[in-house]
Amino acid sequence: MNDKNLIIFDTTLRDGEQSPGASMDIDEKMQIAIALEELNVDIIEAGFPIASIGDFKAVQEISKVVTNSGICALARALDKDISTAAESLKDAKSPRIHTFIATSPIHMEKKLKMSPNKVLTSAVTAIELAKTFTNDVEFSPEDAGRSELKFLCEVIEAAIDAGAKTINIPDTVGYNLPHQFGDLIKNIISSVSNSDKAIFSVHCHNDLGLAVGNSLSAVMNGARQVECTINGLGERAGNAALEEIVMTVRTRQDVFKCNTKIDSKKILKCSRLVSSITGFPVQPNKAIVGKNAFAHESGIHQDGIIKSRETYEIMRAEDIGLVSNSLVLGKHSGRNAFKQKLIDLNIMPKGNSDFDNLFYKFKDLADKKHEIFDEDLINLSSNVKVSANLINFKYMNVITETNKKPHAHIKLEIDGVLEEAESTGDGAVDAAYNAIESIIKSDCKLTLYSVNNITSGTDAQGEVTVRITKNNSVFNGHGADTDIVKASVLALLNALNKFKENPETNSSKKRGI
Ligand code: KIV
Ligand code: ZN
Question: Is 346 exposed, middle or buried (0-12, 13-18, 19+ CB in 10 A)?
Answer without folding.
Answer: middle
